[in-house]
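Here is the promised in-class demo. Please do not try to memorize the tokens; focus on the logic of going from shape to residues.
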């Protein structure tokens, strides 16, 4: 199972209405299966600020977090997602060994 598949499988525990995990490793210089972007829409985020949302995701991923370098998180409630419609594009890597 790829790292992306493991991340997707684990994040299903948050019962997402929408989940997209992108492997963005090709945009960085640390090799394969190192950088990911997750767009996660869940009722579980209602009433939580972005820090609490990210902590919930990190806690859900647990030890898996130590197996890759970076995870860009875009977390929304279903209502926020309906208004946003899409997550922002990832910036180009600035180098620095990332």
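The designed amino acids, position by position:
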């Amino acid at each position: 199972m790829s790292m992306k598949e493991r991340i997707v499988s684990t994040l299903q525990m948050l019962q997402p209405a929408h989940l997209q995990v992108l492997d963005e490793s090709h945009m960085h210089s640390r090799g394969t299966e190192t950088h990911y972007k997750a767009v996660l829409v869940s009722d579980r985020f209602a009433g939580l600020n972005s820090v609490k949302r990210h902590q919930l995701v990190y806690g859900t991923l647990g030890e898996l977090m130590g197996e890759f370098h970076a995870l860009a998180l875009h977390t929304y409630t279903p209502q926020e997602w309906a208004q946003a419609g899409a997550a922002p594009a990832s910036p180009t890597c600035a180098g620095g060994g990332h």
